[in-house]
Write a structure and sequence with these properties.
The protein is of the alpha+beta class. 27% of the residues lie in helices and 27% in strands. The strands form three sheets. It has a five-stranded mixed β-sheet, covered by helices on one side. A hairpin with a 5-residue loop joins strand 9 and strand 10. The radius of gyration is 18 Å and the shape is globular.
């Protein structure tokens, strides 16, 4: 069987947001489990109960969204992992996918332009904000860190974290990468383009990095090297099998003009 290679069209990155099924969402959870591979089901069974719903909804979304854009059934989708765990779609190397999840939310980013990464962080009170600043901020960023970002939720740190993680995941290093090696200027926004001032080994890359608004309790970002001028955001129900949107499908969409 030859898969039909579908969108996103050149210049676009699509981001699908799925909420974690809550208590009493048994049907949604079962729909998610039906989409998982045998290996994913084995991992799900060995997880602590509090982690199962997020894992199932995140990986079901990855498989369902990938299948929709690769022109396959979810059961036909297979991934190969890069050296540091980044998923690549077997049989469709031009389809770039990235998965991120945090408590309550998962994101799947899809592009056919260049290396793609997405990240989402849930804003929460920090017991050690100074320690997190050391992990996230470069020396230059830490030196200019404004005092008005020292509030109880430290949302600015999570914004920087999401932006940097998205870039590192596009590069393929993800959680193994050094957040302090990436410098960004997101400001205090929840959406819009972000300038990438520096990133490991990216001197020849043109980055499109954008904050994605998926709710006030989260900070999220998507990065595409060499493309992704337009970001389109879509909502996905847990266990849903989406159809790739047409160019006229309504979505939160903005051209990226970061400089």
């Amino acid at each position: 069987m030859t898969a039909a290679r579908l969108g996103p069209p050149a210049g676009e990155v699509h981001v699908w947001a799925v909420r974690e099924p809550g208590p009493g969402s048994g049907q949604a959870l079962w729909r998610c489990l039906e989409l998982l591979s045998p290996g994913e089901l084995r991992r799900w069974r060995h997880m602590v109960p509090s982690q199962r719903a997020l894992y199932a909804s995140a990986h079901a979304a990855l498989r369902a969204v990938t299948a929709a854009y690769a022109g396959l059934m979810a059961s036909q989708v297979t991934f190969t992992a890069g050296k540091l765990g980044k998923p690549y779609v077997c049989g469709d190397p031009g389809l770039r996918v990235s998965l991120a999840h945090t408590e309550g939310m998962s994101l799947v980013a899809v592009s056919r332009d260049g290396p793609t990464g997405v990240d989402v962080e849930r804003i929460r009170p920090l017991s050690d904000p100074v320690g997190l600043r050391r992990q996230v901020l470069s020396d230059i960023e830490a030196e200019h860190w404004p005092t008005d970002r020292e509030g109880p939720l430290n949302s600015g740190l999570f914004t920087h974290w999401a932006c940097k993680e998205a870039v590192l995941k596009a590069l393929g290093s993800g959680l193994a990468g050094d957040l302090t090696a990436v410098r960004v200027t997101p400001g205090a926004r929840r959406s819009g383009p972000v300038r990438v001032q520096s990133a490991p080994g990216s001197a020849a890359r043109t980055w499109n990095l954008r904050l994605v608004d998926v709710g006030p309790e989260f900070r999220a970002a998507v990065a595409v090297a060499g493309g992704g001028d337009v970001v389109r955001v879509f909502a996905l129900e847990p266990g849903e099998r989406p159809a790739p949107p047409s160019p006229r499908t309504p979505a939160a969409s903005e051209p990226s003009t970061a400089s």
